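Handoff note, outgoing to incoming analyst
You'll be picking up this chain. Sequence as last confirmed:
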Amino acid sequence: MVKDLKKKTVSGVIWTGMQKFGSTLLTFISTIVLARLLTPEDYGYIGMLTIFLAISLTFIDGGFGSALIQKKRPTHEDYSTIFYWNLGLSIFLYFTLFFAAPYIARFYGLPLLCKILRVQGLVLIVNAIRIVQTNQLRKQLRFKKIATVDVSVAAFSLAVTIFLAWKGFGVWALVVQQLLVSVLTTAIYWITGHWLPLPYFSKQSFKELFNFGGYILLSNLLNTFCNNIQGLLIGKLYAARTMGYYSKARSMESLASNFISNVIDQVSYPVLAEAQNDIEAMRRMLKKFIGVLAFFTFPIMSLLILLAKPLFLILYTERWLNSVPFFQILCFAGMAICLQGINYYAVAAIGKSNVMFRATIVKRGFGLMLVVLGLYFWGLNGLLLGVVMSSYIIYIVNAYLVHKHIRYTLIQQLFDLLPIIVVTCISGIVAYAVGRMIPLHLYLVAVIQAVVFIAIYLSLSTILKLSAFADSYEILKGILKKFF
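Most recent structure output, in case you need it:
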């Protein structure tokens, strides 16, 4: 079983990695092109509404997606029950947002937000129709299909969005992009899939899944609210342009910090859930997952902090330079964010949703206090500092839960991460010093710093024989084997 699970894990990582690479590449192209066609205000409008849609989408999933994956053998009745629940709740939430839209627009003092929210909100219903199919594919570890559909839809949607932005549709180009992705993905899953819901709703099935999913729902709601509260505060207290700068910085940081972590999280949860009765096997897998995550993400975030200014100039032009300080601060948070999910899902995999909810109240309550106090005393920079501190607190709490329930102690986890942290710091310090000593053009200095950083990082990883380096090499070798 363990050997078969390892094979499925590697395959899942490879296909999810391909999906994430394709999606990230398309998003990267999108941000470069659209940053020249759209204004910071356009991105600011979308950023102001993110919290309302994110909370609604969290409600719709209701933690039942996690419950279906965590359950060893979910039945057709289970899937059908959750399908009807998702659909009914999505319709209710859409009309709630529809009638609340004028008041939300008035809150921000921007009448245009009313129309945007009413159209954008349709993704709630469309996404609800496909949640069951997505969870079935994840449960069955069929990441190849997910990768193929997601990348194909993203490419087509991007082409349409760029055309609309070029034609002067402004913020509506971004709204259409979200709708297209939802509609096309849902249509493909239903046309190519073989699953149809049973014609009834099972109260017994709902109750059973809610016993686990209910706590996940509450945890996810609190996480979603706290992750998006910055947008609400910035949108209310500052101009749409400032919100646009923040949105661009955050999307760029998320693109980098979540690139590897989303791959690992998507694969690790169903795999760890499958091995939930073997704590020792879970501990070994978790150690490898965390090592690979840190090995890739820590140097990426450090390089981005180092090269932020030339990067934004090349990709987005001088129009977006005000995003650079926001981006650099958020990258420090990204190092902790990349490790939050894997620890969170490990505890969820063994069914400890009630424990997770109690921990979420503590860590998110404390984090929210730091963000609000930072904003009150030091303005926007204080808010971002609160975000960074909150990210590390959340990681430590999640790691403590793993320490308590899976016996991979917090000290041991930090000790395993220490060599990667040291190698990353040495590489960053040397690359920074080299950049300060060379009186060349900004872009040329950035290239030299990147080369120096990567060379030192890989050399030290080889000399010190980091286990995470060996595990990462095995995964990359598997990806190349798939291609060739």
